[in-house]
C-alpha cells in the first residue's frame, strides 16, 4: 500500500476508504467491481459504490468509469459543476498521492490539457449557450406536419394519394422529433431545468410514444464509452451481427455461428433498418417502463397512443390506424438506423482501451459533409465528432467549433474523418461485409 490508502475490510460493501485518504492509481484501479467502485475526478477519489444506483444518468454509465479517471467524462456530461458538487462531497474519500500523475494508464497529458483549453475557449465564446427560438421553431415544424397530415385526411378523405402523403409527413415529423428529443436529452435549452425535463418528456413521450428515462440511460452509455463492447449498448448486436475487427475473429475462433455472418451485409437490409424501432425498441421500451415501474414515462407514452388512435380511428378504423402507424415506424426505423450507424459502425469497435476523451471519441466517430439538407436530414448528427466531444453543446454551434477540433486533431495526428452522405451510408454495408469476411476466415482456418 502506498500513500496511506485504506483497503476495504471483508464484507464492507462500500469498498473501504476514509475521508482524507491518499491513494495511488493502482489502489483506485483495484476498486472496479460491481460491488466496489471508486473513481477519480480532478485528482479527488470518490467511492460511488452505494450511490451509483441513484445516479440520475443511470448506474451503468457511471459504473463504466469505476477504477478510472472520470474527469473528462464528468466535465462533458455536467455543465453545472457547482450543482453536482453537493452530490460528490459525501462520496469523497481522499485524493491521489502527490507523486501520482493526474491521468491514469499512461494517457497523453498534453492532449488532455489542449482539449481542456479548447473547451474553455468554446465556453468563453458562448458556444454552449442554446438559442431557445431555434428549438421552438424546430418543434413548431414537427407539430405543423402532424396537424396538416391529420387535417388533410379529415377534410378530403382517405384516398391512397392522401394516405401516402400522410405517411410521408408523419414519418418526417417522427424522425425530426427523434432528433429534437435527442437535443433536449443532452442540453439545457431553457434556463429552468424543470422546463428542459418537461420538454424532453413531452417530445419523446407525447410526440413519439417512447420513454425519456430509457433513452437517457441507454444513450449516455453510448456517449461515455462509444463503440466499446460491454459498455456501449449500441454495439450489442445480440449475436445477429459481428462488428469491428476483434469480435468477428473471436467468434470465428470459437466456432460461433448463430447467423451466417459472411452474409450479414445482405441480411442487414431485412433485419436492421426495418425492425429496430417497430420491433426491438418498442418491446424494450415497454418492458423497461413496466419492469422498472416507471409510471410517469408510461403515462407520457400512453398519451401518444391515445392521441394518435383518437385522431385516426375515426378516419381509418382500428385496423387501418394500426397499419398506418406500423408503416410510419417501418420508414422511420430505416431513417434512424442509416443516419445513426453511418457515423459509428464503420469506425473502430473494440474492448476498453483506456484512452483519453479526444482519442476515444475520434476513433469511434466520423463526420458527414455539411449542407442544409445533411444538417436537417441528420438533425446535425453529421457533426458527430463535435457532438461526441461536447454532448451538451447545442447543435447550431457545432460548425463553429469544428475548425478548432480539426486543428487539434491535426496537431496530434488523430484522424478527423469527413465523408459524403452517400459514402457514409455505403460504408455501413462495406464494414459489415469486412467483418463478415474476417469471421469466415477465422471460422474456417483458425
UniProtKB/TrEMBL annotation:
<keyword id="KW-0812">Transmembrane</keyword>
<keyword id="KW-1133">Transmembrane helix</keyword>
<keyword id="KW-0472">Membrane</keyword>
<keyword id="KW-0560">Oxidoreductase</keyword>
<protein>
    <recommendedName>
        <fullName>acyl-CoA (8-3)-desaturase</fullName>
        <ecNumber>1.14.19.44</ecNumber>
    </recommendedName>
</protein>
<keyword id="KW-0276">Fatty acid metabolism</keyword>
<dbReference type="Pfam" id="PF00173">
    <property type="entry name" value="Cyt-b5"/>
</dbReference>
<dbReference type="InterPro" id="IPR036400">
    <property type="entry name" value="Cyt_B5-like_heme/steroid_sf"/>
</dbReference>
<dbReference type="InterPro" id="IPR005804">
    <property type="entry name" value="FA_desaturase_dom"/>
</dbReference>
<dbReference type="InterPro" id="IPR001199">
    <property type="entry name" value="Cyt_B5-like_heme/steroid-bd"/>
</dbReference>
<feature type="region of interest" description="Disordered">
    <location>
        <begin position="1"/>
        <end position="22"/>
    </location>
</feature>
<keyword id="KW-0443">Lipid metabolism</keyword>
<dbReference type="InterPro" id="IPR012171">
    <property type="entry name" value="Fatty_acid_desaturase"/>
</dbReference>
<feature type="domain" description="Cytochrome b5 heme-binding">
    <location>
        <begin position="20"/>
        <end position="97"/>
    </location>
</feature>
<dbReference type="Pfam" id="PF00487">
    <property type="entry name" value="FA_desaturase"/>
</dbReference>
<feature type="transmembrane region" description="Helical">
    <location>
        <begin position="160"/>
        <end position="180"/>
    </location>
</feature>
<keyword id="KW-0275">Fatty acid biosynthesis</keyword>
<comment type="pathway">
    <text>Lipid metabolism; polyunsaturated fatty acid biosynthesis.</text>
</comment>
<dbReference type="GO" id="GO:0016020">
    <property type="term" value="C:membrane"/>
</dbReference>
<dbReference type="GO" id="GO:0006636">
    <property type="term" value="P:unsaturated fatty acid biosynthetic process"/>
</dbReference>
<feature type="compositionally biased region" description="Gly residues">
    <location>
        <begin position="1"/>
        <end position="20"/>
    </location>
</feature>
<feature type="transmembrane region" description="Helical">
    <location>
        <begin position="267"/>
        <end position="285"/>
    </location>
</feature>
<keyword id="KW-0444">Lipid biosynthesis</keyword>
<comment type="similarity">
    <text>Belongs to the fatty acid desaturase type 1 family.</text>
</comment>
<dbReference type="GO" id="GO:0062076">
    <property type="term" value="F:acyl-CoA (8-3)-desaturase activity"/>
</dbReference>
<feature type="transmembrane region" description="Helical">
    <location>
        <begin position="305"/>
        <end position="328"/>
    </location>
</feature>
Amino acid at each position: 500500500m502506498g500513500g496511506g490508502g485504506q483497503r476495504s475490510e471483508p464484507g464492507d460493501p462500500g469498498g473501504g476508504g476514509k475521508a482524507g485518504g491518499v491513494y495511488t492509481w493502482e489502489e483506485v484501479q483495484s476498486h472496479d467491481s460491481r460491488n466496489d467502485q471508486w473513481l477519480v475526478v480532478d485528482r479527488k477519489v470518490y467511492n460511488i459504490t452505494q450511490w451509483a444506483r441513484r445516479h440520475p444518468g443511470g448506474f451503468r454509465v457511471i459504473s463504466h468509469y469505476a477504477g478510472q479517471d472520470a474527469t473528462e467524462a464528468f466535465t462533458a456530461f455536467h455543465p453545472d459543476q457547482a450543482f453536482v458538487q453537493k452530490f460528490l462531497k459525501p462520496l469523497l474519500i481522499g485524493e491521489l498521492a502527490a507523486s501520482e500523475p493526474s491521468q491514469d494508464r499512461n494517457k497523453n497529458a498534453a492532449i488532455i490539457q489542449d482539449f481542456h483549453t479548447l473547451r474553455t475557449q468554446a465556453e468563453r465564446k458562448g458556444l454552449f449557450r442554446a438559442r431557445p427560438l431555434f428549438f421552438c421553431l424546430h418543434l413548431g415544424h414537427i407539430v405543423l406536419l402532424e396537424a396538416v397530415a391529420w387535417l388533410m385526411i379529415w377534410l378530403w378523405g382517405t384516398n391512397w394519394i392522401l394516405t401516402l402523403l400522410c405517411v410521408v409527413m408523419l414519418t418526417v415529423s417522427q424522425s425530426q422529433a427523434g432528433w429534437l428529443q435527442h437535443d433536449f436529452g443532452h442540453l439545457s435549452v431553457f434556463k429552468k431545468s424543470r422546463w428542459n425535463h418537461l420538454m424532453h418528456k413531452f417530445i419523446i413521450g407525447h410526440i413519439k410514444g417512447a420513454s425519456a428515462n430509457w433513452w437517457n440511460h441507454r444513450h449516455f452509455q453510448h456517449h461515455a464509452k462509444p463503440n466499446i463492447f460491454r459498455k456501449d449498448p449500441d454495439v450489442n448486436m445480440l449475436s445477429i451481427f459481428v462488428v469491428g475487427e476483434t469480435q468477428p475473429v473471436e467468434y470465428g475462433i470459437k466456432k460461433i455461428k448463430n447467423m451466417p455472418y459472411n452474409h450479414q451485409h445482405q441480411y442487414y437490409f431485412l433485419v436492421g433498418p426495418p425492425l429496430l424501432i417497430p420491433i426491438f425498441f418498442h418491446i424494450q421500451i415497454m418492458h423497461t417502463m413496466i419492469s422498472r415501474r416507471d409510471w410517469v414515462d408510461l403515462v407520457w407514452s400512453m398519451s401518444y397512443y391515445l392521441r394518435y388512435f383518437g385522431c385516426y380511428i375515426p378516419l381509418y378504423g382500428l385496423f387501418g390506424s394500426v397499419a398506418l402507424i406500423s408503416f410510419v415506424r417501418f420508414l422511420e426505423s430505416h431513417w434512424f438506423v442509416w443516419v445513426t450507424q453511418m457515423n459509428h459502425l464503420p469506425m473502430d469497435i473494440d474492448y476498453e482501451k483506456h484512452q483519453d476523451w479526444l482519442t476515444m471519441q475520434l476513433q469511434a466517430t466520423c463526420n458527414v459533409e455539411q449542407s442544409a439538407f445533411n444538417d436537417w436530414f441528420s438533425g446535425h448528427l453529421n457533426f458527430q465528432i463535435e457532438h461526441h466531444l461536447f454532448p451538451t453543446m447545442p447543435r447550431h454551434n457545432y460548425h463553429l467549433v469544428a475548425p478548432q477540433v480539426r486543428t487539434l486533431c491535426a496537431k496530434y495526428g488523430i484522424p478527423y474523418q469527413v465523408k459524403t452522405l452517400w459514402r457514409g451510408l455505403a460504408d455501413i454495408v462495406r464494414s459489415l461485409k469486412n467483418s463478415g469476411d474476417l469471421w469466415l476466415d477465422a471460422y474456417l482456418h483458425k
